[in-house]
Specification:
Blueprint: E1 3-4, E2 16-23, E3 28-35, E4 49-53, H1 71-78, E5 83-87, H2 93-96, H3 110-128, E6 138-143, H4 145-156, E7 163-167, H5 175-184, E8 191-197, H6 204-218, E9 227-232, H7 239-253
Parallel strand pairs: 4-5, 4-6, 6-7, 7-8, 8-9
Antiparallel strand pairs: 1-2, 2-3, 3-5
């Protein structure tokens, strides 16, 4: 059942709703946030889809951890013709968003999380709403660990995700494993928007991101302009950086 999420006290727009979906791969039920563009109910057109992690932080100050991204207000203001699917995270966030085990933090169950998105959630969304289902019309987007798992998703499921929003990616979580994966990967065709701040508190975040971006550039001619790197002066590792940068990233990707 889909419920409107703009009850009293919510900052979400009327384009936002939410529903619960069984996630057998994760042995739980996931809350899914859904943004439908203005005019959806009066049109017959199909729309591209952005799958975003940390759905509780995207639309509503009431549910956000440290301030929302204002995705709905941003898209309402530019009349964006796109559907957004936000997957809520919880106390198992580190498990779900990490592809590899870290010596200090453990975890590394992103394969199950992505299995849920690709084989349970996406079929549900495509069957229920008018979506453009091809990889070129399907993006995956996140920040920090969400940036890491988004990039990983494009490597693992190139036939599903053709665009990536990679904000402040936590590539430090498994540097060796990620490097090994990139070495083994022959082709990479996704369009990627890399972004971080120069004041994130981790001196390696820029270096790590540039190493990955360089690898992406080796997979295709830079003349194709299929990836973009942005380093924000004074940008910190927080929702403000990601909120302020989201519109430009969307417009470049789409």
């Amino acid at each position: 059942m889909i419920l409107n999420s703009w009850a009293q006290g919510s900052s979400a727009s009327k384009q936002v709703s939410n529903f619960s979906l069984e996630a057998p791969q994760l042995h739980t039920t996931k809350k899914i946030w859904l943004y439908l563009p203005k005019g959806y109910n009066t049109s017959t057109r199909k729309y591209p889809v952005i799958y975003m992690h940390d759905g509780q932080n995207l639309f509503d100050n009431r549910t956000s951890f440290a301030g929302e991204w204002n995705v709905d207000e941003t898209f309402d203001s530019i009349n964006a013709k796109v559907i957004v699917v936000g997957i809520e995270t919880n106390d198992k966030r580190m498990e779900e968003l990490t592809p590899f085990k870290n010596q200090k933090y453990g975890s590394g169950k992103a394969d199950d999380y992505l299995d849920f998105i690709v084989n349970t959630l996406k079929p549900k969304i495509d069957a229920t709403y008018r979506t453009k289902t091809s990889a070129r019309n399907t993006a995956v987007f996140g920040s920090s660990l969400g940036g890491l798992v988004s990039f990983y998703a494009a490597i693992k499921y190139p036939e599903v995700f053709g665009k990536v929003g990679c904000f402040s990616p936590a590539f430090w979580f498994g540097r060796k494993e990620l490097n090994d994966l990139m070495t083994e990967t022959k082709d990479f065709d996704a369009k990627v928007y890399f972004l971080c701040g120069d004041s994130e508190g981790d001196a390696d975040v820029i270096t790590d991101m540039e190493i990955v971006e360089h690898w992406v550039n080796t997979k295709r001619c830079e003349c194709k302009k299929l990836n973009k790197k942005v380093i924000v002066s004074g940008g910190q590792h927080n929702e403000k950086l990601w909120r302020d940068s989201f519109k430009k990233a969307y417009l470049w990707l789409f």
